[in-house]
Amino acid sequence: MFVTVELTNDVLKDMHRCMVQIRRFEETAGKLMEDGKIPGALHLYVGEEAIASGVMAHLSKEDQITSTHRGHGHLIAKGGEFDRMFAELFGKATGYCKGKGGSMHISNMDLGMLGANGIVGGGPPIATGAAFSNKFRKTDNVACCFFGDGASNEGSLHEAANMAALFKLPVVFVCENNGFGEYTSQANHQAIVDVADRAQGYGMPGVIVDGMDAVAVFEGAREAIARARAGDGPTLLECKTYRFYDHVGVRGMGLSYRSDEEVEFWKKRDPIDQFEAKLREQNIMAEAEIQAVYEQVAAEIEAAVQFAEESPMPDPSTITEDVYA
Amino acid sequence: MFVTVELTNDVLKDMHRCMVQIRRFEETAGKLMEDGKIPGALHLYVGEEAIASGVMAHLSKEDQITSTHRGHGHLIAKGGEFDRMFAELFGKATGYCKGKGGSMHISNMDLGMLGANGIVGGGPPIATGAAFSNKFRKTDNVACCFFGDGASNEGSLHEAANMAALFKLPVVFVCENNGFGEYTSQANHQAIVDVADRAQGYGMPGVIVDGMDAVAVFEGAREAIARARAGDGPTLLECKTYRFYDHVGVRGMGLSYRSDEEVEFWKKRDPIDQFEAKLREQNIMAEAEIQAVYEQVAAEIEAAVQFAEESPMPDPSTITEDVYA
Amino acid sequence: MADQNNKPRQLTYVMAINEAIRTVMQEQPNAFAAGEDIGGAGGVYGYYNGIQEQFGTDRVYDTPISEKGIVGLGVGAAATGCRPILDLMFIDFMGECMDEVANQLAKMRYMFGGSATLPVTLLTMAGAGASLAAQHSQSLEAWLCHLPGLKVVMAATPADAKGLIIAAARDDNPVIVIMMKTLLALNGEVPEDSYATPIGKANIVRPGENYTIVTWGRMVHEAITAAEQLARSGLDAEVIDARSLQPFDTETVIASVRKTHRAMVAHEAVRYGGLGGEVAAQIQELAFDDLDAPVARVGAPFAPVPFSPVLESAYVPNAETIVAEVRSQLRIEG
Amino acid sequence: MADQNNKPRQLTYVMAINEAIRTVMQEQPNAFAAGEDIGGAGGVYGYYNGIQEQFGTDRVYDTPISEKGIVGLGVGAAATGCRPILDLMFIDFMGECMDEVANQLAKMRYMFGGSATLPVTLLTMAGAGASLAAQHSQSLEAWLCHLPGLKVVMAATPADAKGLIIAAARDDNPVIVIMMKTLLALNGEVPEDSYATPIGKANIVRPGENYTIVTWGRMVHEAITAAEQLARSGLDAEVIDARSLQPFDTETVIASVRKTHRAMVAHEAVRYGGLGGEVAAQIQELAFDDLDAPVARVGAPFAPVPFSPVLESAYVPNAETIVAEVRSQLRIEG
Lengths: 325, 325, 334, 334
Ligand SMILES: Cc1ncc(C[n+]2csc(CCOP(=O)(O)OP(=O)(O)O)c2C)c(N)n1
Ligand SMILES: Cc1ncc(C[n+]2csc(CCOP(=O)(O)OP(=O)(O)O)c2C)c(N)n1
Ligand SMILES: [Mg+2]
Ligand SMILES: [Mg+2]
Description:
Structural class of chain A: alpha/beta
CATH topology of chain A: Rossmann fold
Oligomer: heterotetramer
CATH class of the largest domain in chain C: Alpha Beta
Low-confidence stretches of chain C: none
Strand order of the largest sheet of chain C: 3-2-4-5-7-6-12
Low-confidence stretches of chain A: none
Bound molecules: thiamine diphosphate, magnesium ion
């Protein structure tokens, strides 16, 4: 059996920092978009930070993930650096994708982050391929595939899940169920309540955890990832969560697809607030230490935004570069 | 509630005749193919007759079905006429598709047979559309979607099943699980034993019946179809079956993908033999009456083959006809 | 309602789409609309705003994110008496449902010997220019036009957006209506009544004497701008909005080239393998002796659409690209 | 083994494919093969015969019927150090996995700013002539060639089938190798050693002086037959097997046309919107002043592939179609 990551205080602190990093990155990105500095579409991860933090606590750089259109949080948790991330969102030459990808394709192969994806359901077959590769190359690495409740209705997930179970591949399908695909509620896109109910139909375990609780995610992911590393095949790990901002951008479009009460209900369960309350309660981090994290992260972000702002735009002559190896 | 079809002696006799018709049609088609009279690929339904017969016993012409590459049996059970069927297989102008479709696209809209399909998994979204239409047009018709165990791994089935359950559409997904997709056994294409296990993940019932027993299929279909007509949504009805001939054509390719023992085991469970044994046992049909069916069917087939042989080939000038309405 | 000064009514492209869908839903009791987020949300680009409210949840359906499912739903429903209006948010998602589009929707009638009729209207959004990167910015009309059984139209103006959608919905064949995301805010004259823009008929949007530009979609406007610039060099370019890409109005194009003797095809899609090749090939086939110069082509370079605005704006062909190409084709200096 | 008389070895097209796959599996330890029924059964056309036996179930995988899954598997595995050989039984099934092919496989490297490398080889079978009807007989190379990021090759001979597959597998880019079902039994000389047919280089299979036929796939053989017939009318046609459709060897084609002054592009795909348009457009762009006649095009009529042999054989272009088109193009009497 593989040694799994234990939930030490250091791990808890790392998860906290990670959530704060994601939150601040996203809030900053949202503002920069509203200020017209970030072009295109921006899908923010605010509210869902516990999932990326809890899962990625188990992964090394050699483990891979596939992400979604809502991918910044996954990249940050996988070790992505703010400066190159902001630079990418700005469309700068110094960005992770040299400005060619932007938010929806942000990625870094060296960190095992096989890309945000503009195609809903684009990730699962690719994650399955990475897991196949891990097994084929006789490594003990695992691939984690993030996807939404909306994405769970795409055929790609079905095909990938079946294949992963059949070949007993080291992959974890992490469903970030935030109750909506864009503006369509889960009740309006599927007749089931738990996406995890689909696991059995592929011959893999389906596990449900509270996606607003980083520790619950951590524990769920620990088991699933251990199973994958041990060669026992995939798991469908469903994390119940909520996004605090709109589907795209920051503010709602004036649409009434979510009631104020619903939003308030979930905001009370803010994954960071809850986590910090526990950290304080259990004397793992004092208030000052927590505040120090925010200050450090704020400084990092400020520097990164400056880096991005000062970075050069890509040269138009590079348009036809990077098409072929 | 809708009145369902009761299992009267007449219905049993109809089912018997239907199975014999399919068997004889397929055997004849196989021979004609070997004689070089039928071009292209022919996927025979021999061994699986109980399914088409048992399900179609409940359907009227206004109910629809979608079929597969193995579609002759479905069309016969839905009321397809031998002469136009053979003519189509021969590529004649008098065929159901004027010779343009052939075996893999044989169809008849007037009979509610929305086509064999050369694309594995092509049927489910179309059947779901027909079911949608039934509901939209406020009819009480139902659509039955036939698909194989191999097809169950296509994304199209996933998307269709989810949508059908969500919209509570009058459709029955009939899985003809013959244990193989071409030459690949079920164990080599999915990690589950029962395709019906997938039903729960869409929020619909999954039911397993003996696909070699027309009465068992009839009863399973009765409930599923009644549910659909009543507006209670789809059912996944899995019928365990076996094909007696090769995946395509008649004889095996010399491949050892199925053991002789396995084939023998299933041939002992021949759906027609078993059914006739019961008919005799329960004095529903005497031997002579059974034999008369074979004779009538043989005569029908002979006449139909003659019709097909004597029919004209389509005129090459028709190539660009029927592309647009 | 006609406006008070009795001037022809102006409408944005997005509102013209909206009005067209409402018109179709009114005219055709068996029409229903299905697509992702078109119901409660009115569609991500808003062209479904208010339509579910008006026609009810029995006529306008939010679907799961299941493009194969959506197109298959349309095929099955159309074959059994409905007239579906399907929504494929971005043409880039065509890859998800290409089997249903290419192998079922386009071919069913033919494979069935003419017995199936598939009055499906499929609306989808194409084009670059919104910093949406490689998977949300494509122009894939060439894939669709190569498929017998489909009709394909592309709307360059609010009036045509309305007219082509209505024409598509009245047509008994599957028609794919490609709309342009960068034109959504464009204002134009749009008649209030119900009318169909004939499918198969190109539109001469700027008559001219000695040069022909055949184009479609957003590029129609770029071509007009280019024509104005070229006028200063003494070139009087005729701009033809092909509008219907399948069937294609070869006749109008050839008549123009016989008059002008020089031609270009311009589209936003990647140049290599784009429909421009087909059109250029047709022109030289049918008007070879009339041509004073090779038929020129303008299209995007051979790369996916880049995200960064500086790259994207250099990538997407526009009026300057057209003018530059004409100058080099005709060896006109500066 | 060289045969006893020391004559160059003959191999069928199907066996050449088989040998190529074996060669690649031997040369590249990180190569694996995955597809429907390629393992135990050796593939529906037999070109995988014996390969799983030789390399084991750890290198050769039967997959579920999940085309999206198969291509996605290749993308993910290639991006992380493997060199997948994927099998898509029929090119007609491209619709099932077009998203993975067009939006992931073709674009990943670009979207990621060049950081991902995707050495995927995808084998697939195209063409009509086997009475397999509309969904198993298509030639869809035009879709693929319009996609920056992919390379696309098509093998007309056993030697090229082997050489192109090896070249594809050695290439660090995604390469789609299109094979022709009607050529499987074709015999030809095939070197025994491992060799790569260069991607991007056309092959002049019949030199000629005063006419150029550019073609690919099965039509190469039809063009040669046509050229022999045309020789009787005093036309000495050069036949060019384009072989590599993306990148396309424009240079070789243009050099030929500059010499011959008359050209045709012939393919089995539907004529409208086929790659022939691109090639014809290029020829007139680059060799306009050399052309004595419009570039002709031969392709299938605008209809899906019909089932009935009498219809299919009238549908599929062949030597007669080519000859007839040349005669009408050059106004040569019967
Ligand atoms: C194939 C495809 N279909 C539709 C879309 C448009 N789209 C982008 S995000 C989204 C909703 C996704 O919902 P979910 O998977 O639950 O993720 P969430 O946004 O909730 O994180 C949709 C429909 C797309 N990008 N790709
Ligand atoms: C999309 C697609 N992929 C692959 C094939 C090739 N193919 C034809 S039949 C078949 C096996 C289907 O298996 P199953 O669904 O179990 O039906 P059965 O033949 O057993 O009745 C395959 C792989 C196809 N026709 N379409
Ligand atoms: Mg969601
Ligand atoms: Mg089967």
